Amino acid sequence: MKIYVISLVIFSLSTSILPNVFAQEQRGRIRDFGISIGILPTGQHNAITDVSGVKVGHTTLIQGADIRTGVTAILPYTGNIFQEKVPAAVYVGNGFGKMLGISQIEELGNIETPILLTNTLNAPIVANALIDYMLSLPGNEDVRSVNSVVGETNDGGLNDIRGRHIQASHVIEAIHTAAAGPIAEGNVGAGTGTECLGFKGGIGTASRKLPSSKGGYTVGVLVQSNFGGVLAVNGAPIGRELRNFYMKDPKDTYKADGSCMIVIATDAPLSSRNLKRLAKRSYIAFGNVGAFSSNGSGDYSIAFSTHPDVRIPHNSKDMELTTIDINNNDMSALFMAVWEATEEAILNSMFMAEDMKGRDGRELKAIPIQQTLKIMKKYNSLQHDKLPRAIEK
């Protein structure tokens, strides 16, 4: 037996030589398993980076037995966002959180830095590094005030959160490595040590593309999932069937608190007012997957527009600002898109996550995909992609 184990190490635990008892369940995004949400088509990568200009970078810290954390950076576009700000808005689902920068976003309706995600106790460290980064950019030599935007969730279940292991170099790495295209999901960046609906959470993303008759706009969402509830997937009661949910018995140790950060990008030309309306609709998805926003859950949605014609110059010679906005009556398709993309992003964060052991030897299991699919078949919740979809017109 000892020789056999050594052989496994030599062959990098190849599943071709493992007996079934050692086989690892294959992970993937929900669409890899015949699960789809809603009716709208996705963008090219089904990610927030399908919104032109948006880039995402991660720094992941998995060290020793108890460091399980990281940083995720979302850049609205390539360039100096302080000098050319983008309209933005925040919707607070439940305010038990430590998000930085929301009062100025609420007051002025824009953001002037990338959006950074991390863990609760590292938020001030990340904000400080983000300020250093912004002050160092060419053109910002005379800047005396920066509204750094940093969201967080508490990963203290798996991570030595009191150690505050994130350093400025990790923040800069996440920003500098940010890229367009496919995004790493699951146990990466700010989602490294998170927990969601009784299973391993993480980073997840998705997007929706509107038909040309509705503007042809793209809505992309990225989530940092770390909250409790009773998991449901396309209406199938997964958490209940797997006996993994809040208040399942008197000795319940289920983690109901935690928080969720939802970052929404769109290329539709929206004002901060309409962006806040858009951010509100993401909360529909939050409930659809079984979340109820417990007392200790800080749940925030932040939305921004990348459309070049709605940017706000830091310095302008003109007293009046001319901009454009979508008509109220034409917002409905965008509302639908953000609901669908948010729900899929949350589920992708769980399906892409893997089992993880961390602080004090605690182990958190990822959602068991094959068992989940079996339950979904029982409730006729699979292959929704065969239903009629929105027609391009």
From TrEMBL:
It comes from the Bacteria. Coiled coil: none annotated. Gene3D superfamilies: L-amino peptidase D-ALA esterase/amidase (3.60.70.12). CDD domains: DmpA. Residues 1-23 form the signal peptide. This is L-aminopeptidase DmpA. Serine peptidase. MEROPS family S58. It comes from Sphingobacterium wenxiniae. It holds the Pfam family Peptidase_S58. Belongs to the peptidase S58 family. Keywords: Aminopeptidase, Hydrolase, Protease, Signal. One of its GO terms (molecular function) is aminopeptidase activity. InterPro entries: ArgJ-like_dom_sf (IPR016117), Peptidase_S58_DmpA (IPR005321).
